[in-house]
Amino acid sequence: MTEFFIVLIAFLFMEFAAWATHKYLMHGALWFLHEDHHVLTGRVMQKNDSFALIFAVPSASGFIFGSIYQNDILFFSGLGILLYGFAYLFVHDIFIHRRIKIFNKPNNAYLKAVLFEHRKHHVSEVKEDGEFFGMLFVNPKTLRKFSAKNG
User: Fold this and answer.
1) Tens digits of per-residue pLDDT, 86-98?
2) What distance in Å separates the CA atoms of residue 131 and residue 10, rounded to the nearest whole number?
3) Number of C-alpha atoms within 13 angstroms, CB side, residue 117?
4) What is the pTM of this model?
5) Distance (Å) of CA 111 to CA 11, 63, 86, 105, 141
6) Fewer CB within 10 Å: N-end or C-end of the chain?
């Protein structure tokens, strides 16, 4: 049971880490890697995809050092980060940006709110003036708006 909570805490922490990285680094000093994500390039791969490799480092490190030192916290933290990476792949790349077209339009208030918030973020093609830098946690007002429409 402890292992499950370590994975869960690492997964939830990654939403905060991804938000902070997105807001302060991707829309800051690392804009040169993130910019092509805000502009339609028509390319299958973007410089922005390099962030998958960047976030893979702490996950792999958790697995490696957790195994070497028989440290469950490191090992299962690596697993939580990996699972967040899979969530990012499915939610951000496949569901939101439809890089692989397997999902239909959502009929769920939460999923509609996730799409709406992310699309609000992409209104700006410059690194300034952005809003909503997260992926999974949406503004409660936005969620209520879409819940009311479904109700």
Assistant:
1) 999 999 999 999 9
2) 24
3) 24
4) 0.91
5) 19, 31, 17, 9, 14
6) N
